[in-house]
Amino acid sequence: MKLFALSFCLSIAFLLQAQVKTGSLLWKYTTQDKIVTSPRIDSNHIYYGSDDGSFYCNALSDGRLLWKFSTGKPIRSSAIVADGKVFFGCEDGFVYALDAQQGTLRWKFATKGERNYDLWDYYRSSPAFYKGLLYIGSGDGHVYAINAGTGKEVWRFATGGIVHADPVISNDTLFVGSFDGNFYALHAGTGKLIWKFKTIGDRFFPKGEIQKAALVTKDAVYFGSRDYNIYALNKQTGVGLWNMKEQGSWIIATPLEKNSKLFFGTSDTHAFYSLNNFYGELQWKSPLPLRSYNSPVAYDSLIITGCYDGFLYGLGEKGGKIAWLFQTDGSKKNYSTVFDSTGHFRRDFSIYGDDAATKASEAKILNLGSILSTPAIRNGVIYFGSTDGSLYAVRIAGN
Q1: Can you give 169-209 as a three-state secondary structure string?
Q2: pTM of the prediction?
C-alpha cells in the first residue's frame, strides 16, 4: 500500500508545479465539526447537516447563514428538499421535516434508533421523496415510508441489518441495500418485496455489506459492496448482469454514469475506475492517494471526485489524467501529519494496526479535511463539505 501511494503522491507533487488547473475559492462557511453530508441546492439556498448537531441553510451566493436548526446530535444524513420542506435523518433516531424557508420544525418521526456499524460507517441513509411519501433507511434495520405532509408512518420493511444506504425510487419501485448483504427491490406504495439479491461475500467480509446508495438507470442497478465487488443487476428481475472484484478493497462509492461509462473510486486500493456499463470492461484506472467514498460528479470533460487526503481531483473523462485540483484548508494545514515533504506516507504513519492505532490513524486522516461529501455543481461552482468542518464553494474554472 505504501509503494502504491508513493508512486501517486510523487506525481501529485509534480502536478502541483505543472499546468494543472486549480479551482478558486469563492466562499466557505465553517461549522463546529465534520461535514460528511452532501449539500442540497434549492433556488438560492444550500442545505446540509454537520456532526456538530446542527442543520444549516446558507445563501448560495455568498455563504452567509440564513438559519440553522439544532438537533443536538450529529447529522450524517443528506437532506432532500420537497413541498416547501427539507427532510433529513439524525443520529438521535429521528427523521426531521423543517420549513425550508424558516428552518422551523414541521414534524419529526421516531425510528427505533440509530447505531454505528464500525469506524468506517460514516454515512446515514438520506431520504427520497416520491408521490407524497418520504423513504429512508435506519440503523434499526428498517426501511420506512412516511407521509411527507404529516410525518405518520405508512409502512416499514425489515431487513437483516443496518440500512445506511439511500433508497432510490424508479417506476414505483424502491431500491436499497443493507448491511445484511442483501439488495432489495420493494413496491414503493406498499413496501412489498419484489425481489432481493445476495452479494457473494468474501473470506474476511462474508456478509458483503452494502453501505451506500445504488445507481439506478433505465435497465440496470449498480452498487458496490464490502466484499470487494461492484455489481450490475437487471432492474426488473434482480438477476446479475456482471460483477467486478477489486481485490483487497471495498467499493463504497455510488457510481456515476456518463456516456455509457461508470466512474467510481475505491477504498484500500486507492484507485479510480472507468468501466463500460454494459459489460463491466475496464476503460481506464487511475491511482489516488487515499480512499474515495463519495460519488463523483461530471463537469464538461472532467470527472470530479473527492478524496480522503482533502483534495478534489478532476480527471479527464476519456483517459483519467488529472487536469484539475482543489485542496481543502484542513489538508493544507495537516498534510504533513500523514505525508512527508516528497508527498508519500510518513515512515511513522500506518493506516492500520491494532484497534487503538487504527483509530488514531483514522483521526489523522480525517484531520486532512477529507472529502466524503458528494459535491453539487451549479453554474460552474462546485459545493461540498469537508471533515475540516467547512462547506466550500469553489469556482471550477481556475488558473
Answers
A1: EECCEEEEECCCCEEEEEECCCCCEEEEEECCCCCCCCCCC
A2: 0.95
